[in-house]
Structure formats: C-alpha cells, structure tokens
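Hey, I was hoping to borrow your eyes for a little while. No rush at all, and the record is pasted right below.
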Amino acid sequence: MEDSAALGRTKTATSVISRIVKPGKETAFEEWVHGISREAAKFPGHHSVVIFRPPPGAQAYAIVLHFDREEQLKMWLESEVRKEWIERSLPLTEAPETRAEVSGIEHWFALPGRLAESRPSKLKMAILTAATVYPTILGLNAILSPILRRIPNFLGALVVTVCMTFLLTYVLMPGVTRLFKPWLYVSQLR
C-alpha cells in the first residue's frame, strides 16, 4: 500500500524530438531551435532543453525537453505558441518531427529511428544499468582517487557523478545497448 507521500510525488517528463534538417538550412534551423527553446523556457515546469547536433555530413538533430511534470510537458507540446514555431520550421526540415515521451532512463535504450516503440522491459533496463554503473563507479574511483583524496567528499561525489553521467550517456550505454540488443529487444527484432 502506498503512503500519502508516495501518492503526492510526480514523475518528471521528457520528450525526445528528432528533426531532419534540409541541406543548406542548418544556420536557419539553429536560429529556429534557439528561438523555440526560449519559448519553451517560458512555460511552467520547464527544466531544460538539450540539443544533440548531427555529426558532419548528417542532418538529424535530437532535441530533448525536460519538464517537471507530464501535465506541464503536455501543456507546452499542445500550445499554440509551439504549433506556430513548428509551422515556421517546415521549410527548414525534410519531414515532420518524430517525438517520443520517455521517463527515467528509457532514452538510453531507444533503438535509432524507432524511439516510441523501442522500449525494453524495465527489469532488463535496470539489470543492464546496474551492470554498467557498478564497474563504472569502481573504475572512476580508481582513476580519480589522487584527485578525490585532495578535495572534500561532496566535491568528490560531484566529480564522480558528472564523469559517470557523461560516460553513461555518450559512451557506455549506447555501446552496451548495441551489444545486448538481441536480449533487450528479443520480441521487437523478430
């Protein structure tokens, strides 16, 4: 049985948006994405916008929106302001946006091009995350120990947290997800 504190808690909300920019329209798209990001920041519950730019020669942008609650994210996504900004982006992009609302760490496990339908079970995500986080913490503590010994514990924890977050997000989880893809997506790859 849930206690009243657990019932009052809300989950943060994340939306992962993919846009394919037309060649030659990159500068205009950059201006557009900064403009729509400023507008999103005016909405209640807005936490952050992270823009993942494509590597050279590619045209696919990923935009990750974070809001405090699902209702607040939905209010932004369905707003007239956003609809107007999306309309402005149409001459700059090759196709309509693709969007997936995710919670927790699901974005680490999304199959490229199939964000919405490519979520493995939460148990598999938890097992793989724990199996990746544990050796990462051990490794970071060993590598960073000369630095960690000279600074206060709270700063050491911050250094390890920042390093681990970037390693997990950009290096380890994408590789681990590819490596374990047959196990994670057994029902989706048939």
Remarks:
- The two ends are 38 Å apart (CA to CA).
